[in-house]
Amino acid sequence: MMVSETTLRLGVFFGVLLIVALAEYLWPKRTAHLPKTSRWSRNLSLVVLGSVAARLLIPFTAASVAVYAEQNHMGLFNVFPMPFALAVVLSIVLLDLLIYTQHVVFHRIPWLWRLHKVHHIDQDFDVTTGLRFHPVEILLSALIKCGAVWLLGAPFIAVVIFEILLNATAMFNHGNLHLPAKLDRILRRVVVTPDMHRVHHSVLPSETNSNYGFNLPWWDRLFKTYQAQPKHGHTEMTIGLNEYQDARKTGLLALLVIPFQKK
Questions:
Q1: What is the largest CA-CA distance in the chain?
Q2: What is the chain written as a DSSP string?
Q3: β-bridge partners, 177
Q4: Which end of the chain is more exposed for a tag (fewer CB within 10 A), N or C?
Q5: Which distant-in-sequence residues (6+ apart) come within 8 Å of 21 by Cβ?
């Protein structure tokens, strides 16, 4: 069961990565400022390092926690049974709310922001930006997710669906994609679009601290962190953080060390 889950997730991951990368090539929104080879190598290296660290240091996954909770009758949905389909839907929605909340917290607590800002230092915005997180943040996120799955007693299938959706939508909404304005308005009613999330990667603090959603777009509207468009427009806005605009100083080793440097 766990092998098939891993195979499914990897298959979807590489499939979505390839599709979004091809779409970026065919219908780009912005002109890249930095060579793609150097950016992609550091971004993909970060996700590989984070994934290896999580596999070595955490002896369980969110999906295996779901199986354990069900077998031992632990967690909200196992203690208080409800229709299976409802438990699946509620689990996916509540886990997405958790990711939104976690994202807000990582912006507002200084030591967590030191980790998360590695994601924001990217001076361009494309599919690999959605994979670019410091390994320590990946470890913390995995533990938070596992804890939430255990407390909820989320069904195994709900966790698998959620993980696939989260990875796929993170790559989609970080894509350097030109979507027709009408299509974007329709899509952002049900999913975070590239134009919606790109605002979050602006150097302007008021925009950086908005549009936290990764999958479902409703939380930003509900909690009033939604901003429809960037002040300077999508093609003219500056991506990244003002203090990290020199690409020569943000190589892979620097990104690994930055969270631990004195301000």
A1: 55
A2: -HHHHHHHHHHHHHHHHHHHHHHHHHSBSS--SS-HHHHHHHHHHHHHHHHHHHHHH-S--HHHHHHHHHHTT-SHHHHS---HHHHHHHHHHHHHHHHHHHHHHHHHSHHHHHHHHHHH--SS-SGGGGG---HHHHHHHHHHHHHHHHHHT--HHHHHHHHHHHHHHHHHHTS-B---HHHHHHHTTTS--HHHHHGGGBSSHHHHTS---SS-SHHHHHTT---SS-TT-TTTSPBS-GGG--GGG-SHHHHHHGGGS--
A3: 28
A4: C
A5: 126, 127
Place of tokens 């361009």: 124
* Tokens read off for 153: 């007693």
Token pair 């976690």: residue: 102
Question: What one-letter code names the amino acid at 126?
Answer: D
Q: Which two tokens stand for residue 57?
A: 């240091």
